[in-house]
């Protein structure tokens, strides 16, 4: 029999970004909140201290800062006619385990999605007609608008101390910012990061190519910053160890550097680590969550009763829990019916590596030190003659110059031997790379369900991912790569290595940890798992956070939108706690 | 229910590098994670990597790795090669530790063959792959040339490495491409990782490319466009990692 813990008002599954925000908001509202985290407690000191964290082999290559697939992974195949096989070690994406979640090891690239992204079906039908949308594409509006989310984007950016240059304040275009962005109420809390040699090269070349470059928004503090919770952050020192590392300098926004110093002192908040939640429990009606069951570090199964449950785990883990808990109707790809696991999407990326003469010192960098253009994101350009939906940003990010994984070699360079030594010697300090970061739409054939064969350490079926890039995404990404090449060509005395994203999706090479969907939000319960407030249609005292609710993925890194949606949902939860019940009638 | 924690003590306490408690516990932690203590008191560090007793490799395996990695990263006009950089020791210690045992990998069967996009699907750990593959490569050398890999002339060694890279040698269960990719990846790691891990000796790899080591503050320097950064090379264990690894600092 499972041991039973004392009931709490709200239990959070996971203790990363979304859990920290929800916990801070709901404890302020006076309820008792408990977070259950499967990983370890981690904090800036001692875990991310600068004399230990700058270890590329340990953290980035051996992946010790991420989740370990040893006990729990997923299986993967490109299409339903293949047998999915376990992802035996991490590759394409790098979810976290441990307090702070992926908020510890992200780069801090903190974007807002475009207003049209949230109403993409309505917008696409109006501009291009219904027939423009491929039959296999599950293109969906989000059920929430940019204008509704704007105050919540603002809250997240001010929480994080985002550095940037506004492009549109109250509908008035601002010089030097992103001219395509949605209107914001006020500018960023901090000015942009310093420029480095490579971002200056990009800026000049992008202008010559006729585009509109701007400093990318960075949750790396350009100056010392005290956030609205009174938490102090330090100026970024450009040490080049952001992504795949914790920040030792209190400069990169994470739960640890923005919320936890306040949250952890609260009497009505607690957390437990090394607790792996395996079920959301429901009562005999199946319409009310009664809490969760987890397995603790000693292998004991423990029941945690709660008045409300919030899934704050990484995207696909939330979906896995819903499927294991039999909450919501699982998606059936043969009929197209059902919702849990539907609308899985990702990101499609490519790059153009640039080899030129000037010394760039790539190791002086920051995770979100970048210059970008948004001319080809969303519907900022006419898709009519192009025939595809979506877009992405093009940017030069100088995240660092870590030697094992961050060196660039010319096309057809020798892969080993003295020739390899020579190209490493000749190019490390002077090469750079322009990235494209494209949207991925949702399709009938891309989904998550439970694997029939492989199991995790707790005896549960692994999650099964069925995913491939579709022709729409390849066409979009190729177009984006062509535009990036135009920028590369405007850099003087340079040669290029164009790396298109060809062929099938592969789980092997790292691309992005921007896994989205599976528990889509929306206005229609037949095509979404949660309503516009991220509340389960089936179980009103269950909420689902994170990128798992994205109906499809836009051409930006997701964290800014995840943060905004979390603040938006927290407001709704406060209303729910005063007056429990569905916040939207189905 | 299988809980591996109980078998391993602390399931998440993976070792093999400078730890968060103190960089000075680094060496101890490596040794703690290895089955045999072959690291301390092993004499002066001059000479080839074979000078120290391998922890995981047999002497013959270490000889093969010395020879193969020295072709992958040769000594030439641009500086020393893999042997001078201590890469055999680096790989040996990696295979003796958590990586060699695939501690963080999902290793539950069944084990059907997959397609390239599905990635690694072998039931062997990196340590097992090296042992099995080296034995088969050496058997191939003896059959084709009548001597072990290390005694072939460099041109023949390169030919064989190219054949492995292209998957043209039969290594039984282990695709030659997989072994070559792992060997080349680990060789690069040994050349470019922090010298605290016993490779990249005397900052050989970082000197070749111009990476100054993990430094903390570039606030002023990042604005000096086009200028080389000139500061002493530094490791997580200080400016003289070799002395540190000998226990002298």
UniProtKB/TrEMBL annotation, chain A:
Database matches in Pfam families: GMC_oxred_C, GMC_oxred_N
Limits of the Glucose-methanol-choline oxidoreductase C-terminal domain: 444-565
Claim: Flavoprotein is one of the keywords in the record: yes
MF annotations from Gene Ontology: flavin adenine dinucleotide binding; oxidoreductase activity, acting on CH-OH group of donors
Glucose-methanol-choline oxidoreductase N-terminal domain location: 232-344
UniProt keyword terms in alphabetical order: FAD, Flavoprotein, Oxidoreductase
Family: Belongs to the GMC oxidoreductase family.
Protein name: Gluconate dehydrogenase
From TrEMBL, chain B:
Compositional bias (Basic residues): 11-24
UniProt-annotated stretches for the region Disordered: 1-24
Basic and acidic residues composition bias: residue spans: 1-10
Domain of life: Bacteria
Protein name: Twin-arginine translocation pathway signal
Lineage of the organism: Bacteria, Pseudomonadati, Pseudomonadota, Gammaproteobacteria, Lysobacterales
């Amino acid at each position: 029999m499972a041991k039973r813990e004392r009931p709490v008002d709200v239990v959070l599954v996971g203790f990363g970004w979304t859990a920290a925000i929800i916990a801070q908001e709901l404890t302020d509202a006076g309820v008792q909140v408990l977070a259950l985290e499967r990983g370890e407690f981690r904090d800036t000191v001692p875990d991310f201290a600068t004399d230990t964290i700058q270890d590329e082999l340990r953290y980035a290559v051996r992946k010790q800062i991420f989740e370990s697939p040893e006990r729990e992974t997923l299986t993967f195949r490109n299409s339903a006619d293949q047998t999915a096989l376990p992802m035996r070690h991490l590759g394409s994406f790098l979810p976290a385990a441990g307090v702070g979640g992926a908020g510890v090891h992200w780069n801090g690239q903190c974007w807002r999605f475009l207003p049209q992204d949230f109403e993409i079906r309505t917008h696409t039908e109006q501009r291009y007609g219904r027939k423009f949308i491929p039959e296999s594409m599950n293109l969906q509006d989000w059920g929430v608008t940019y204008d509704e989310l704007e105050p919540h984007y603002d809250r997240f950016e001010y929480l994080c101390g985002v550095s940037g240059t506004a492009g549109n304040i109250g509908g008035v275009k601002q010089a030097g910012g992103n001219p395509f962005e949605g209107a914001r109420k006020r500018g960023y809390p901090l000015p942009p990061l310093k420029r480095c040699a490579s971002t200056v090269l990009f800026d000049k070349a992008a202008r010559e190519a006729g585009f509109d470059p701007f400093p990318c928004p960075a949750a790396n503090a350009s100056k010392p910053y005290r956030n609205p919770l009174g938490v102090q952050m330090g100026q970024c020192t450009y040490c080049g160890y952001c992504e795949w590392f914790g920040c030792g300098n209190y400069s990169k926004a994470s739960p640890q550097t923005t919320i936890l110093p306040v949250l952890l002192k609260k009497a009505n908040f607690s957390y437990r680590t090394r607790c792996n939640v395996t079920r959301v429990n429901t009562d005999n009606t199946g319409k009310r969550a009664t809490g969760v069951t987890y397995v603790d570090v000693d292998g004991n199964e423990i029941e945690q009763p709660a008045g409300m449950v919030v899934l704050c785990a990484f995207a696909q883990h939330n979906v896995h829990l819903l499927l294991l808990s039999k909450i919501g109707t699982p998606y059936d790809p043969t009929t197209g019916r059902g919702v849990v696991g539907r609308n899985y999407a990702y990101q499609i990326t490519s790059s153009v590596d640039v080899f030129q003469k000037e010394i760039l010192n790539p190791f002086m960098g920051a995770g979100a030190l970048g210059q970008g253009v948004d001319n080809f994101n969303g519907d900022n350009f006419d898709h009519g003659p192009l025939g595809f939906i979506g877009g992405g940003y093009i940017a030069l990010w100088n995240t660092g110059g870590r030697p094992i994984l961050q060196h660039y070699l010319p096309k057809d360079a020798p892969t080993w031997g003295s020739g390899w030594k020579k190209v490493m010697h000749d190019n490390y300090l002077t090469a750079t790379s322009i990235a494209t970061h494209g949207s991925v739409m949702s399709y009938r054939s891309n989904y998550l369900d439970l694997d029939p064969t492989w199991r995790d350490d707790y005896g549960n079926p692994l999650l099964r991912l069925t995913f491939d890039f579709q022709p729409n995404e390849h066409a979009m990404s190729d177009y984006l790569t062509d535009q990036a090449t135009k920028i590369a060509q405007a850099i003087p005395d340079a040669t290029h290595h164009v790396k298109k994203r060809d062929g099938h999706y592969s789980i092997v090479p790292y691309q992005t940890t921007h896994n989205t969907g599976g528990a889509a939000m929306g206005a229609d319960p037949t095509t979404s798992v949660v309503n516009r407030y991220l509340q389960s249609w089936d179980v009103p005292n269950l909420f689902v956070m994170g990128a798992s609710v994205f109906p499809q993925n836009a051409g930006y890194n997701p964290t800014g939108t995840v943060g905004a949606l979390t603040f938006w949902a927290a407001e709704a939860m406060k209303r729910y706690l005063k007056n429990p019940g569905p916040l939207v009638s189905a | 229910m299988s809980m591996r924690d109980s078998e391993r003590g602390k399931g998440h306490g993976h070792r093999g590098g400078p730890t968060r408690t103190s960089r000075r516990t680094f060496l101890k932690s490596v040794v703690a994670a290895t089955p045999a203590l072959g690291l301390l008191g092993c004499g002066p560090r001059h000479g080839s990597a074979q000078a120290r007793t391998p922890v995981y490799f047999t002497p013959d395996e270490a000889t093969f790795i010395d020879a193969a990695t020295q072709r992958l990263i040769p000594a030439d006009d641009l500086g020393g090669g893999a042997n001078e950089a201590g890469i055999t020791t680096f790989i040996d210690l990696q295979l003796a530790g958590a990586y060699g045992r695939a501690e963080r990998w999902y290793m539950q069967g069944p084990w059907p063959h997959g397609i390239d996009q599905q990635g690694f699907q072998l039931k062997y750990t990196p340590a097992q792959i090296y042992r099995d593959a080296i034995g088969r490569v050496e058997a191939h050398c003896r059959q084709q040339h009548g001597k072990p890999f290390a005694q072939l002339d460099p041109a023949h060694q390169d030919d064989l490495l190219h054949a492995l890279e292209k998957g043209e040698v039969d290594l039984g269960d282990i695709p030659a491409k997989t072994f070559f990719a792992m060997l080349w990846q680990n060789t690069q790691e040994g050349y470019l990782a922090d010298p605290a891990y016993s490779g990249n000796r005397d900052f050989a790899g970082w000197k070749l490319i111009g990476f100054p080591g993990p430094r903390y503050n570039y606030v002023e320097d990042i604005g000096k466009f086009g200028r080389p950064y000139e500061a002493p090379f530094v490791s997580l264990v200080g400016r003289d990692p070799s002395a540190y690894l000998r226990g002298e600092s």
